Structure prediction request, 796 residues.
Amino acid sequence: MHIARPGSALLAGAVAVTLSVTALPAAFAAPSSSAVISEVYGGGGNSGATLTRDFIELANASSEPFALSGLSVQYLPGAPSAGSLWQVTALSGAVAPGGHYLVAQSAGTGGTVDLPAADATGTTAMAAASGTVALVSGTAPLTCRTAADCAADPRIVDLVGYGSAVVREGSGPAAGASAAASVARGTSLADTDDNAADLTAGTPTPVNAAGETSGGSGPGEPEGPTEPGAVRIHDIQGTTRVSPLAGQSVTGVPGVVTGVRTTGSRGFWIQDTVPDADPRTSEGLFVYTGSAVPTVAVGDAVLVSGKVAEYYPSTTTQSLTQLTAPLTTVLSSGNALPAPVVLNARSVPDAYVPTAGGGSIDALPLEPKRYALDLYESLEGVRVTMSDTRVTGATTAYDEVWVTVKPKENPTRRGGTLYRSYEDQNTGRLKVMSLDPAQPVPAADVGDELAGTTTGVLDYASYGGYNVQATRLGRHVDNGLRREVTRKQKRDELAVATYNVENLDALDDQTKFDTLASGVAVNLSSPDVVSLEEIQDDNGAVNDGTVGSEATLKRFTDAIVAAGGPRYSWRYVAPENNKDGGEPGGNIRNVFLFNPGRVSFVDRAGGDATTAVEAVKTRKGATLSVSPGRINPTSTAWDSSRKPLVGEFRFRGEPVFVIGNHFASKGGDQPLHGRYQEPERSSEIQRVRQAAEVNTFVTSLLKADRSARVVTLGDLNDFAFSPAMDALTRVRVLKPLITTLPRGEQYSYVYDGNSQTLDHILTSPGIRRLDYDVVHINAEFADQASDHDPQIVRIR
Prediction:
């Protein structure tokens, strides 16, 4: 399964999905030299929000005023029904050259920080996660409900769809909006007519026409204090995860600037040079400047006044204690920085986090000598350093890399850190990002090193939790990780593989097809049967009712031939439109590829999206009622999820039954690092039911023929030690092969620096002689065609 970056924090292997339809022409997209919708936030006043109300911000990158008289901003729900109406807020005045214009919308009961004075006010209650906002010439409500219809309306000046919005510009909506995150353009206000490319999720940063930001900071504000106040940073941080001064204003908090962030959630960190004696109280603090680029520099001694706030990146994460709406006085520059705290195997505890019986740990007193997450919280905002760290999670598209300060903690054979159980967390993992544009995070693979010292400020974010905002990066040492190539099956061995190809469709670049095809032909040595997950329909995420995958599979199998593999045939059952989860409009499904020169497929007519396959007992053993078929597809266990694909193959005259699976994602699970401990795994309930359905079907096959050879495989989205695996293997009808490998090789996926297994191959008792291999070609590499490694079993 593909892990989409925007969205709620995930336990492991979860997915955030976006809704896409036909790409829009540039008809209603304003050029970047004119007024654009620069920021949209619908989470105001919600639980987990800091701001008290929603807003829409406009900006003008041109050198001339942009008149707003007679114009409006209008809002439509993300998935509009026939009765959905555009809600209108009339505008007046103008957006100044290089300026902003703030439209306040509905207020909620949550949040602690007011918007700056609005330039226009409406009453629209915008959704936090998904919606569409349009800047419109006129005040009459729009009537369009689809992207194509809205593209044809000349009144639309600019348009932003976010979350899973049906109406949006370009290839996809801007993703990641929530109670804690808006979607916003960069400082260049670039407008390429593609919301997904032009806007990113981040901390809301409303700016009004006067240049004021949240809390009233901006031009004309009073100067900051010149003498230290009574409150120090450790007083603000306190001895728990939540500040005892949250919601209160403080004056003249002293510190030295240790790091400055000029993009994303802008601000700077300060640290007290006179710490107290309590190891629970952090001496560092983040000062949030909103949309304003910080004007301080590392080494400045400052006094900061502002309001203490707890920022929750999402409703299930821990919070970041910060000062908002700051007034800052620089007393001197070029000061020495506090010595960084050393993080290593000796200083970081082996226990991960205290339990609260599933409740919040916010109020629990910190025990930094006992729990790793308590130690990290006690160092929130503090300078830290670590030496010669091993990479456990490859560099991502977001310029982040995971390392461990505990090189001997659950090591894998290839340099990662194994995730062994729910109770045995890897405490040495930390995510590293760079604060220095001149020293970006290197493209590192698992097993590489950051040699020497990496130093920075310890921060907290929704994705991955505690992280180091590096001011100095260690030297990248490439330890030469290589992609594996498994051996070729012997003449009398049937080779069956599983591979999640991450939302492959006929509109993808040829490079993706070629790389995935090489994985099948070369790295997997051309298996006889390949069970694929995440094959999309032929027009990908275009949501027009298309469900066939013939063009996608033709391109893929052609690419396999070009890579030196055989000419594969394929079988699948087309899903009902938008009934199998995944990316809306994409209609992902399980597919069998097979090499007809080595194995034959037994076709039995009658299988479709809603017909259940059944085991049929005959004098010669078990057969299938339909082939290919689906396991009990109308069961509620498969709601908004892929249905297992079952096929009957013959190899050297003997029947083999293959079941391709792609269980429900982990979306919605609470994060390992979150404030609720132990985390709730809500998505697990559906996977347990799905596993029981597959177990029931395999049991029926074995009742028809107890020696039946059954291979069950695919992306099960769960671990070998999970309740779902227990449900799948109960009464020992199936054996999970991942557990037959040495412990340091039991993984096929890397998430947040944890090497783990979501993909599996299981076999029935009738299969006695086999050779099993996980072929590592993707998950450990910065450059990857999929986020999953394929697996293969060779059966004699």
